[in-house]
Design brief:
single chain, 255 residues, Arc Repressor Mutant, subunit A, Beta-Lactamase, six-stranded antiparallel beta sheet, two-stranded antiparallel sheet, 9 helices, 46% helix, 18% strand, globular, transcription, DNA-binding IclR family transcriptional regulator, DNA-binding, Tscrpt_reg_IclR_N, GAF-like_dom_sf
């Protein structure tokens, strides 16, 4: 199948998707005028699309007439979740990592050159499915992301380099492709990834690959996130062993 290009995009569809993404990314309901400003459309043009999405159930309104994602969007998102089995199998190992490390445990996959969180275990708290995917553009600056980049076939990695800019989040974020290439090669050699202050200053993450049941392909990355204050060689070794054990358990239980 040919890869889509900017020329192949249908403007009205792209505008509708932009509107849905604006509402999705907002922490509260959004006024129609603010939607129009965010997507760069006139109020009249934006309102035509918003009204269509509202009538079809992809947007809804609160008591003030401001917009939220509607039930149809929820159903659409649920249908796109193809990682239910992985999430189920990873549940207990992730909770174990979280409890032993007293840190956040993150299970991520790569989808269309973005980092998707399949589930998160927060410290000693419950395992959750994250709603706000704040790390979509952070494959290059998170441990889970680097694991997934290291697992990409060469042609996929080349495509990633062609279409994805290396966004800077802190002064430690790698934004040079040669430097990132060297980092990814090192991840392949070591079998784990380390990020320190690269996506959020003051936070470290360590990640390892999760293999499929045949141990042939990487299906996900398992990571732990903790304060940079705690990072030293002994702590790093301890966390990597903990992650590798959990990843092996997940692999064994996958069908």
């Amino acid at each position: 199948m040919p890869k889509p290009t900017r020329k192949s995009l249908i403007q009205s569809v792209e505008r509708a998707l932009n509107i849905l993404e604006v509402v999705r990314d907002s922490t509260k309901s959004v006024r129609a005028i603010d939607i129009a400003r965010a997507v760069g459309l006139s109020p009249a043009a934006a309102n035509n699309i918003v009204r269509t999405l509202f009538i079809r159930g992809y947007l809804t309104q609160d008591d003030h007439g401001h917009y939220l994602l509607g039930g149809k969007s929820y159903l659409l998102g649920g249908a796109a979740d193809s990682w239910g089995d992985l999430r189920s199998v990873a549940r207990e190992p992730m909770l174990g990592v979280s409890k032993k490390s007293k840190s956040l445990c993150f299970l991520g996959v790569e989808c269309q050159s973005q980092l998707i969180a399949v589930s998160i275990a927060e410290g000693n708290g419950p395992l959750i499915v994250p709603r706000n995917q704040d790390w979509l553009e952070q494959l290059h600056c998170t441990a889970a992301g680097k694991i997934l980049l290291a697992a990409m076939p060469p042609d996929r990695y080349d495509d990633f380099k062609q279409c994805v800019p290396l966004q800077r989040f802190t002064n430690k974020t790698i934004t040079d492709w040669q430097e990132l290439d060297s980092e990814i090669n090192a991840v392949r050699d070591k079998g784990f990834a380390l990020c320190r202050d690269e996506s959020v200053f003051g936070l470290c993450s360590l990640g390892v690959p999760v293999m499929d049941s045949a141990r042939q392909h990487v299906v996900a990355a398992l990571a732990v996130v903790f304060s940079s204050y705690y990072l030293n060689d002994d702590y790093q070794d301890q966390m990597v062993r903990l992650l590798l054990d959990a990843a092996a358990t997940i692999c064994t239980n996958l069908k």
